[in-house]
Amino acid sequence: MIKPFKFASIPRIIFGAGKLTELYEIIPEFGNNVLFVIGGRSLKKSGKWNEIVENMNKRNYNFSQISIREEPSPSRIDEIAAEYRTKDLDIIIGIGGGSVTDAGKAISAMIPHQDSITNYLEGVGTNKPDGKKIPFIALPTTSGTGSEATKNAVVSKVGEDGFKKSLRHDNYIPNIAIIDPELILSCPPPITAACGMDAFTQLLEAYVSTKASPMTDSLAYNGLRYMKDNIIPACTTGSEEIEVRTAMAYGSLMSGICLANAGLGIVHGLASPIGGFFEIPHGVVCGTLLAEATKLNIDKLKEKGLEGRPALKKHAEVGALIAGKESFKKGKMYKYLDILVKTLEKWTENLEIDKLGEYGISEEDFDKIIQKSGLKNNPVKLSKDDIHQILKNRL
Ligand SMILES: [Fe+2]
User: Fold this and answer.
1) Do 20 and 180 contact (CB within 8 A), yes or no?
2) Average pLDDT over residues 34-38
3) N or C: which end of the chain has fewer CB within 10 A?
4) What phi and psi values does residue 142 have, to the nearest 5 degrees?
């Protein structure tokens, strides 16, 4: 029987190689005063930024741009929102990875307000976001966070009193997401690997989530199907193949839609505090913890007997999918659970995903991390000792 569920709206999606060109036709729908939020060097290095500037000039659009080089902090968002509040912007366009998309969303949401974003962040401020914003278009240049399809912007303050929190409202879903895999071709292997593991984590966690619905299941499973054979090639021999990048971009988009509607699990429950306390990319946290967390979830579900079987079966479905089987006999469930864990372990190793210790994290930090972590919609309850073990195995 289908349990009740909710499904938020999604952006208008324009997907496919070369679709960047549609941006110029869309801009006049909103007006012609544009702010671009872009990332660091790679967009410029690839020549794409020059192409965009030429096209904007040719059409006489007014535009300015700002660069976001790291995960956005509240003070940076406040500063940019204050600078652009009086500039009468019609549209904000984010072209970059998850940090750029999140920064673009947060700026678009904060321009109509006078105070700090800190007042509106979940678990930090006491004001509820009202959803007012400048329209926002997202063009991802990585395949990872799925932020182009989600209603939240993650903002981080790193340090002892650090946090990684969301600004969230249904209206913050980008008005339009243009996913052009050509923009992703220049993403370097380590970032492709970390982002790819993040997207895979989001798909898997959403698929086995306690909040999953048949609707998110079909999207997550489909995203996993495209990603499973392309994650390694995207970081190696296939990095310049548009089909490989297209499959990864599609998986990432599905992961964003699914996480917004099915929730996530312990890996993301740990990613927030770890990313708040330490300078470690979100994709690395997810990539490094995924195999260990999945293994532990499976062990705990096995201990639950009959009660754990539905979630175990879903894990096995992903294992079978990886093995090229879209269905399996009852007696084969353990075989596919094993394939899932072994594959994730192999990917973590082959993609050379860093361990936590490489970012200055030590066992003494575990308590404060665990204290601020959450299980989110993890398919099984985990104790503090269980979570400690996941972290320790990836130190
Ligand atoms: Fe993520």
Assistant:
1) yes
2) 97
3) N
4) -130, 165
